[in-house]
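ARCHIVE CARD
CATEGORY: sequence design from structure
SOURCE FIELD: tokenized fold
FIELD CONTENT:
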């Protein structure tokens, strides 16, 4: 059915104006004042509302076998949660075990999304082993429309690659013109520090951060930058948590290294004191890299405002407090790492970014949508509002006031890391390719209508 959005304040990464938007055949077909629509069109009065392009989360885990368990969401719960929060496209990390064949892993991850997703989606192909056999499959996966890799410099013996594999992965990426996303922490330093802390009897979640301090992350970034410099590959540092890591990336950029920086919603509003909460509650706040001292939040916001950091993602990785996080009750290294935030990212960025005066609406759209579209080969189909783009729209109510809570969230996890946090504004109507999928906190759409998006190599 055709859709007419009337009188909204349209905000993109560059523009801010009031107009109507007409959508037909899944795309935006006209933008202007006083548009009319056929009698059977859906009409939304967006007066007093902001109209954003659908938000894109470029770092999500849904199907994730990890640390002896599985992340909680599936594509049904994740779609509902993403959509009520304004995220219309997500990019999931495929994380195969080292012995898995990449092509089979790719098909497995696709099967989890097919027939269930209500968001549009794509994947970053995790490279957890590199040899001639896997290289051939990686080429096929890129040919199939997956134009990015993911490497882990952390998680020794599980997802992590060694230096030879890292070099060869980056060299292949350069050849194919695909970007390599990377988790940057020095795994040897993490392993040594963990062992020392445990030997000293420090087993609680409050020791997670000391086991991987900021220099461990900065060293990981420095390491990746050296390899990127030598191979010429384009790189994207995921979940950057601290000033020291940003500095390493910026220094590399000044040497000509192609690197972009992502941060994630939890780092913007939570700090390490949350992981120090008693009664093991700190386990809810264990992710890697860890939550940092509060001063790093200022640095992240400033570097978002000046666009040194390109994107705000989530690194959504949901594990229940009861039954999963408590696997590490007597040993913090066994707490499944992850803080779920797929549903709350945009509301957090709007409230604590725009409303608190830390950045403007254009930066919100750029960091939460447009940059991800550009970097990962989705622009201008996604990431903006223009004729010819997919009709993915977020009609946002700036007057809404509420609180985040596990009691009301749609993510399939038994806690909310942002429990009680105030939100000023939220999506009122959310569309994917012209179909209304969410209204005022409720999912009203159709599961299974999400599409896998083909992405071509970007050859930056
Ligand atoms: O703690 C985290 N980040 N969990 C998810 C896996 C990853 O490293 O992205
Ligand atoms: Zn990671
Ligand atoms: Zn991740």
């Amino acid at each position: 059915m055709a859709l007419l959005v009337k009188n909204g304040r349209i905000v993109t990464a560059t523009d801010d104006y009031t107009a109507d938007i007409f959508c037909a055949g899944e795309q935006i077909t006209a933008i202007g004042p006083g548009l009319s629509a056929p009698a059977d069109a859906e009409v939304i009065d967006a007066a007093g509302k902001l109209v954003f392009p659908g938000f894109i989360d470029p770092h999500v885990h849904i199907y994730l076998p990890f640390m002896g368990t599985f992340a909680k969401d599936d594509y049904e719960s994740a779609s509902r949660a993403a959509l009520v929060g304004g995220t219309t496209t997500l990019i999931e990390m495929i994380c195969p075990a080292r012995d898995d064949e990449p092509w089979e892993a790719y098909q497995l991850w696709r099967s989890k999304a097919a027939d269930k997703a209500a968001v549009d989606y794509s994947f970053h192909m995790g490279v957890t082993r590199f040899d001639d056999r896997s290289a051939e499959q990686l080429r096929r996966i890129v040919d199939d429309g997956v134009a990015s890799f993911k490497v882990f410099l952390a998680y020794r013996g599980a997802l992590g690659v060694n230096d030879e594999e890292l070099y060869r992965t980056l060299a292949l990426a350069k050849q194919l013109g695909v970007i390599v996303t990377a988790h940057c922490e020095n795994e040897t330093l993490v392993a040594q520090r963990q062992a020392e802390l445990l030997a000293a009897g420090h087993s609680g979640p409050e020791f997670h951060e000391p086991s991987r301090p900021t220099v461990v992350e900065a060293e990981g970034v420095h390491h990746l930058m050296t390899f990127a410099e030598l191979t010429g590959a384009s790189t994207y540092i995921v979940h950057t948590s601290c000033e020291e890591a940003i500095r390493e990336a910026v220094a590399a950029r000044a040497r000509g290294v192609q690197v972009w920086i992502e941060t994630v919603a939890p780092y913007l509003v939570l700090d390490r004191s949350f992981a120090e909460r008693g009664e093991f509650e700190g386990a809810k706040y264990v992710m890697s890299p860890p939550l940092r001292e509060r001063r790093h939040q200022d640095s992240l916001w400033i570097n978002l405002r000046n666009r040194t950091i390109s994107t705000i993602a989530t690194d959504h990785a949901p594990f229940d407090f009861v039954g999963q996080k408590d696997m590490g009750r007597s040993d913090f290294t066994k707490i499944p790492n992850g803080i779920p935030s797929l549903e709350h990212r945009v509301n957090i960025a709007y409230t604590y970014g725009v409303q608190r005066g830390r950045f403007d609406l254009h930066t919100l759209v750029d960091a939460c949508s447009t940059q991800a579209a550009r970097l990962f080969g989705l622009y201008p189909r996604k990431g903006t509002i223009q004729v010819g783009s997919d009709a993915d729209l977020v009609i946002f109510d700036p007057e809404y006031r509420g609180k985040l809570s596990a009691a009301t969230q749609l993510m399939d996890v038994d806690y909310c890391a942002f429990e009680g946090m105030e939100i000023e504004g939220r999506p009122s109507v959310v569309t994917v390719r012209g179909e209304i999928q969410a209204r005022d906190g409720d999912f009203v759409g159709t599961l299974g209508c999400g599409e896998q998006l083909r992405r071509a190599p970007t050859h930056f």
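CARD ANNOTATION: The pocket of zinc ion (ligand 2) is lined by residues 183, 238-239 (CB under 6 Å). Residues 239 and 357 are 23 Å apart (CA to CA).
SHELF: design records, drawer C
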